[in-house]
């Protein structure tokens, strides 16, 4: 049975940072996003706002489990901008995040090593200027069961840290929608299957 991703780390809000090196200014933006489309919209908006900048470099990680990763050097030497930006997200184990670093050239070439340090530092400062949050992921289920099963079902929910999302009933019994932390979901399914007349169905969140 496929292992469920139990949680992920991201930033709680967008943030900015400015890093200066040899008169070049690096303006970094860390932006929580949940889709590639949203990431590209943010990138295009920053390109318009900073139309006079020499480079607008970026990277993002989106998704849980096996995130989609993209990066762009925007004219900087290969792997000197997008890769170190992405590297900071990997170092902090962050996903659902876009980081854009806008560079205004100061007239002094920084060299490959200097560029890597500058983009990495700007990205890290933007991360530090926000707050990292760990988000718990849940599996959602619909439970249907006779009225006289209320006690064993309640015990089951407490045992596996489940929460009731919706509670309803008809003439046959209770109809509940619940959520269970992914870290306990498979155990919960096994426990539920052992209760006679409890029907369980996984539903979309």
Structure explained in plain terms:
The protein is an alpha+beta fold. Helix content is 31%, strand content 37%. It has two domains: 7-134, 2-Layer Sandwich (Ribosomal Protein S5, domain 2); 138-202, Alpha-Beta Plaits. The strands form three sheets. A five-stranded antiparallel β-sheet has the order 2-3-6-4-5, sandwiched between helices. Helix 2 (82-91) packs across helix 3 (111-128). The longest helix is centred in the middle third of the chain and has 18 residues, at 111-128. The chain is elongated.
- CATH superfamily membership of the largest domain, which one? Impact, N-terminal domain
Tally the helices: what do you get? 5
Averaging pLDDT over every residue, what do you get? 95
**Which segments are poorly predicted (pLDDT under 50) over 5 or more consecutive residues?**
none
Strand content: 35-45%
Give the gist of this structure.
With 205 residues, the chain is an alpha+beta fold.
Please give a handful of descriptors for the protein shown.
single chain; 205 residues; Ribosomal Protein S5, domain 2; Alpha-Beta Plaits; 2 domains; 11 strands
Outline the secondary-structure elements:
Elements: E1 7-11, E2 15-21, E3 24-32, H1 36-49, E4 55-62, E5 68-72, H2 82-91, E6 97-104, H3 111-128, E7 132-136, E8 138-145, H4 150-159, E9 163-169, E10 174-181, H5 182-193, E11 199-203
């Amino acid at each position: 049975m496929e292992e469920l991703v139990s949680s992920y780390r991201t930033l709680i809000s967008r943030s900015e940072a400015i890093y200066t090196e040899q008169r070049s200014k690096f303006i970094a933006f860390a932006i929580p996003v949940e889709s590639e489309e949203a990431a590209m919209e943010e990138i295009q908006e920053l390109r318009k706002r900073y139309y006079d900048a020499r480079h607008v470099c970026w990277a993002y990680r989106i998704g849980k489990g096996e995130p989609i990763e993209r990066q762009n050097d925007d004219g900087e030497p290969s792997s000197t901008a997008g890769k170190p930006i992405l590297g900071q997200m990997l170092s902090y184990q962050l996903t659902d995040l876009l980081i854009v670093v806008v560079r205004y050239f100061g007239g002094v070439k920084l060299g490959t090593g200097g560029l890597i340090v500058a983009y990495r530092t700007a990205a890290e400062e933007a991360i530090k200027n926000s707050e990292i949050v760990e988000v718990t992921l849940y599996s959602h289920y619909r439970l249907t069961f006779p009225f006289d099963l209320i006690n064993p079902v309640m015990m089951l929910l407490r045992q596996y840290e489940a929460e009731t999302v919706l509670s309803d009933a008809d003439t046959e019994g209770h109809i509940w929608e619940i959520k269970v932390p992914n870290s306990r979901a498979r155990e919960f399914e096994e426990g539920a299957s052992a209760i006679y007349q409890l029907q369980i169905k996984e539903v979309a969140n």
